[in-house]
Specification:
This protein is an alpha/beta fold. The chain has eleven helices and 13 strands. The protein has four domains: 2-160, Alpha/beta knot; 164-219, tRNA(m1g37)methyltransferase, domain 2 (Trp Operon Repressor, Chain A), CATH 1.10.1270; 221-269, no CATH class; 271-354, no CATH class. The protein is elongated. Bound molecules: S-adenosylmethionine.
Amino acid sequence: MLKFNVLTLFPEMFNGFKEESIIKRAIDDKKIKIDITNLRDYSSLKHNQVDDTPYGGGSGMVLMCDPVFKAVDDLKKKNTKIIMMTPQGETFNQKKAEELSKEKEILIICGHYEGFDERIRSIVDEEISIGDYVLTGGELPSMVLMDSVSRLVDGVIDEGSRTNDSFSEDLLDYPTFTKPREYRGMKVPEVLLSGDHKKIDKWRKEEAIKKTREKRPDLIKPVFRKEIGDYAIYDYQGVSKAKDIKLDGAYEFNPKRRELFTVNKVLLLDPKFIKKIAKKSLEKKLKALFDQIDIVLNDESDDEAGSFVLGEIDRIQSLIISYYSKYLEDEYLALLLFKLDALKSEVAMKEMKKIDVVNYDKNRRRR
Ligand SMILES: C[S@@+](CC[C@H](N)C(=O)[O-])C[C@H]1O[C@@H](n2cnc3c(N)ncnc32)[C@H](O)[C@@H]1O
């Protein structure tokens, strides 16, 4: 059973919420429990005062520390999660609701008027907002939270009816229809009447992706989704490269169909391993480059090898900066770039020495 306790100045606002529909049934079935505590019961001031004017001036009243601290001291047990409803908190979503549905006991503090004395934040585990707008009090937000969390508590609603809920897999729910088959010229899609459940599942999945793309593209992230037997990878917002799924270049592909495609095997590499591979590949390139530099520096011939090696040093330097640098320690990177600069100067000097300055004009005229 998940127990909620709500600390509020307006306990009666919760009457309808607790006494209707699924929440009432969940309470009756002892799947959840909702206690409402009047914050004024913890006031030690005249007229049960719980708020006062803000220091520094300004409008509105601020909830005082004392009644809230006392209430929390009294109601908090070992496993109680303390949540403050505030527009300044982390924005509530389905993932948070799922996380909270695993708790044993949640104490929710509702603010009112101007909000809370800032010091109250020190005793809460989480600050939650239900969206970027400001309500008059935390009561409605706390009901929003309790409602969405409660329906995820085991046994509160039929599991099947929530597995495809919007947001449960970063997707909106698929379109649903009920009787009649045709209404004002609008027909129910044929596939839903076909009785072919494999086809229906496929249609629903594709429609959910389509709907999410159209209505909430912001929800769509590249994710791996396990399918029966193998893995499916959804290509969201045109991002189709596994490179964008933390594999960082280790594994890339472009799907033929953009919405949904299936692969037989997915190789997930530990980033440490990718670092090792990158370092090995750089070492190979450096070894080849240093061999070429050695030949140029120890060779007396005046062929084109020098200018070719200068070009190679430039190329490897840009490659290191644009790609390999993220896998290298700062000190090593600086030393390597410095060494390549020094070698470049050496090769350039050698090239300069080859130029016959004394006979330069004569040679030029002859050419
Ligand atoms: C008028 S609001 C105070 C807003 C406060 N001055 C601020 O801007 O942060 C009063 C109370 O309503 C609740 N509240 C208002 N909007 C909320 C939201 N979007 N999410 C969660 N709680 C909210 C909070 O408990 C808040 O303390």
